[in-house]
Amino acid sequence: MKKILNTSVGRRGVLAGSLAGVGMLAMPSILRAQDKSLKVGVYGGYFKDSFDKNIFPEFTKATGIAVESVAEPTGEAWLVQLEQAAKAGQAPADVSMMSQVAMLKGQSTDLWTPLDMDKIKNASGLIDAFVNKYPDGRVAGIGAVAWYITLVTNTDVFKEAPTSWEALWDPANADKLGLLALVSNSFLLEVTAKTHFGGTNALDTEEGILKAFEKLAEVKPNVRLWYRDEAQFEQALKSGEIPMGQYYHDVTGLAAADGHPVRSTFPKEGGILDSGCWALSRASEKSEEAHVFIDYMCQPAIQATLSRKVGTAPTVKRELLDLTDEEFAAVSSDIDPIIPRYDLYQTKADWLNQKWTELIVG
Hints:
By secondary structure, the protein is an alpha/beta fold. The chain is built from 16 helices and ten strands. The chain has helices at residues 10-26, 28-33, 46-54, 56-63, 77-87, 100-107, 183-186, 188-196, 206-216, 230-239, 249-257, 287-297, 300-309, 325-331, 342-347, 349-361, and strands spanning 36-43, 65-72, 95-99, 131-133, 139-154, 177-180, 223-227, 244-248, 262-265, 272-280. Strands 1, 2, 3, 4, 5, 6, 7, 8, 9 and 10 form a ten-stranded mixed sheet that branches. Strand 4 (131-133) and strand 5 (139-154) form a beta hairpin. Helix 8 (188-196) crosses helix 9 (206-216) and helix 9 (206-216) runs parallel beside helix 16 (349-361). The longest helix is centred in the N-terminal third of the chain and has 17 residues, at 10-26. The chain starts with 9 loop residues before the first helix and ends with a helix.
């Protein structure tokens, strides 16, 4: 998805491999009959641990397909690995959870095997935005999970929750903010456009983007930390050292539940709704198992389990879910979200990065 700190596969993967080897010696005929498996790439750390505990074992029980979970690095490093491996006819993972920008970049090289929607019946309940398509209409990926970046505050420092992203520009918040350090994962241009220019369509032209950059530059006196290491900001938020910023709604909620003085607020302009897709590497030979897996993950009951156990926002329509209002609010919001302009990070990446460095973090 996004943001988890530890990306090592860890001891659990080693132990699982050892036990599988013992079982193969003891029951070769049974194991051959059940020898359906799938390598699934997910973000490491807490996120992977949650899938390993709450999702993959139930999938295996339901389908007989064993899952080997692979910890992905964050950012586009995993995309590069998948690309290089596919050229050699190899798949480090059959199915991977990929960011929307990585999905677009992978489309440009036909990295993703088009999905057969007739084999993914549960996709009928998806919110339309969570079906990722090639320009010619082929389906490149299916919404796996979604997550929100919201306005977060330390409750010891800010007794009242802010109501608008305008708080980022408030002179009273000088030297108090922690903001994500990259133009392509902070989505602060979109926040600026929605807050000050009527919506993200203000970014349709380079002139509009430059106006947003100029307005966003006004927050610089308020920024204490432009962060890449989420743990660094999270600790500073908990301690009150950096008492306001943008962070992940689900992780902030978990910290609050653990007793830390933090809160996540959906501003009136909406939280930033980001998401990851399940995508099948063209080098994978497990297309059948992959379609079974993706169809399983699209079930409303599984999306609800993800919300309860992993803290992600559902990718299926709310009316199909059995989440209570409280459970839904813990991971999502009915306020219209700010949807990132992924197209810009594909078509104007170099120019955006240059302007970001010049005008914002330089």
